[in-house]
Model the fold of this input.
Amino acid sequence: MVKGIHHISLKCHGGEELAAVKGLYGDILGLSVKREWKDGIMFDAGNCLIEVFTNGEGVKTTGAVQHFAFAVDDVDGMIEKVRSAGYEVFKGPKDICIPSEPPLPARMAFFYGALGEEIELFCEK
Done:
């Protein structure tokens, strides 16, 4: 039985990329480091971990995962921190309503992370 998501894993070449990852996930988004080892680091995202392997040699490829989303209290405030740190915001922030039953009103924005990953900031209304 699945109990939840344990972690999301990202590939990093180390060095400057790792410094950018630590700056984004730690300083800008405010995630604490759960554990660190020779070839990796795990950030605590509340209900799952963001695992970054620093031995990611070779070409990065995109698989079936389109993006991952962080639940936040203030999309606009967080996206402003991300934008002022130089990250590309490619959608939003904007209000949406997912036409589900029941409808899900929310505010959202998307940006590219330190490794080119697509990250969504999402706040249910």
Strands lie at 7-11, 32-37, 40-44, 49-53, 68-71, 89-98, 104-112, 118-124. The chain has a mean pLDDT of 90.
